[in-house]
TrEMBL record:
Presence of keyword Transferase: yes
Compartment(s) where it occurs, according to its Swiss-Prot or TrEMBL record: Cytoplasm
Family that this chain belongs to: Belongs to the methyltransferase superfamily. L-isoaspartyl/D-aspartyl protein methyltransferase family.
Protein name listed in UniProt: Protein-L-isoaspartate O-methyltransferase
Keywords: Cytoplasm, Methyltransferase, S-adenosyl-L-methionine, Transferase
Pfam families (UniProt xref): PCMT
Chief localization: cytoplasm
């Protein structure tokens, strides 16, 4: 099958037009980049989630070199999973595996919105955290035509990306290493963009910054997270706001191929069940409210819980063993809880605040990382502030 760039050009141009019409692309330079950079060169193989004939959820391999439909699929506005954790992956048939994704080619509309928010200018020196497939580095190289640096924790991904970038005609400076520690070559940058999530802005990224540096990254705050656009000032503070675009990137890794096994706290005994004014459906329905909950309940996780009868609930759990659980089938609305912290009382307080404030969207919240490492979020219209953990 001939995979020349000309064969894929109609798909690239259609993607650029789609992203422009949706408002993800706002400038001609980024429209040209998406129309010219061959995504299929960087994602020749990917995995799509499906349920097989036995009812098992698997990742089914697809290749851009398969059919015309496969080539077109590379240029859909969707995230493409490109690697699975080898410690959890198990092959179940010739082209399918179970397992946890560890790398992906990001949703193109999300990439476009982040790149527009980065507000690059000709001559900017840019650092990308999370090389992945190399596609984003190619887009940056196309736009800037100059010094793009990129780092990824997986040496294999870096080498593959280097080869594919060279084939496409781009030569960014790639390095293998822990992106949370910055780029091994050091130096300062005008722009920093991360395509992985971190619990807080790392010290190393500020070391790479100078007054005027803009930083776009995804924050994982526990219950929820989001993209922030931050400016670095003379005092080495990074201050800005959550963007209108939702993120949900994979977490930054310290291991090249896998994530450490999660350590869940031992849950405290059940203390009781009571009525509540906030349901699991309320939480599921609103991303801005979940983000606000993350401010109110730092270090708390939101997970699904399935009981012995198969009933599903949303469960909050804190490292000290406190927990609270509200069923998805909530008639009447109740919460069951345990532990020293009344987590659901905080949920109800946050719900009252959010409604009294007019249900603000996520871009009405600011975020700051100060030189001393302190971190906080605030409601931009009235200054209400929540202190956040500096690190996970």
């Amino acid at each position: 099958m001939n995979d020349s760039p000309d064969r894929a050009r109609p798909h690239r141009e259609a993607l650029a037009h789609q992203l422009t019409a949706a408002g993800a692309i706002r400038t001609r330079s980024w429209a040209a980049a998406f129309a010219d950079v061959p995504r299929h060169l960087f994602v020749p193989r990917w995995y799509e989630q499906e349920t097989d004939a036995r009812g098992i959820t698997v990742w089914r391999e697809r290749r851009a070199t398969g059919t015309d439909a496969d080539l077109a699929a590379v240029y859909r506005d969707q995230t493409l999973v490109t690697a699975l954790d080898p410690t959890t992956a198990e092959q179940v048939d010739e082209t399918a595996w179970t397992g946890i994704p560890t790398s992906s080619s990001t949703l193109p509309s999300l990439m476009a919105r982040m790149l527009e928010d980065l507000a690059v200018e000709d001559g900017n020196r840019v650092l990308e955290i999370g090389t992945g497939t190399g596609y984003n580095a190619a887009l940056l190289s196309h736009r800037l035509g100059g010094p793009v640096h990129s780092v990824d924790v997986d040496p294999g991904l870096v080498e593959t990306a280097r080869q594919r970038l060279a084939e496409a005609g781009y030569v960014p400076r790639l390095a293998a290493g822990n992106g949370s520690l910055g780029h091994p070559a050091g130096g300062t940058f005008d722009r920093i963009i991360a395509t992985c999530s971190v619990p807080a802005v790392p010290d190393a990224w500020l070391d790479h910054s100078k007054p005027g540096t803009l930083l776009v990254t995804d924050l994982d705050l526990g219950i929820e997270g989001g993209l922030v656009r931050l400016g670095v000032d003379d005092a080495r503070s990074a201050v800005g706001h959550f963007t209108a675009t939702c993120g949900r990137f994979m977490a930054a890794r310290t291991d090249a191929t896998s994530y450490p096994a999660p350590r869940w706290p031992d849950r405290a005994p059940t203390a009781g069940t009571r009525p509540t004014t906030v349901t699991a459906a309320d939480i599921r329905a609103s991303y801005p409210f979940r983000l606000l909950l993350a401010f109110h309940l730092p270090r708390t996780q939101l997970v699904h819980h399935v009981d012995e009868a198969g009933a599903v609930a949303l469960q909050l759990q804190h490292p000290d063993g406190s927990w609270a659980r509200a069923p998805l089938a909530d008639a009447p609305a109740t919460v069951t809880h345990g532990g020293v912290r009344d987590l659901w009382q905080q949920v109800e307080a946050a719900w009252r605040w959010w409604n009294d404030a007019g249900r603000p969207s996520q871009d009405r919240f600011g975020y700051a990382r100060e030189p001393d490492g302190s971190v906080y979020a605030w409601h931009i219209p009235d200054g209400t502030r929540w202190d956040l953990p500096a690190r996970a």
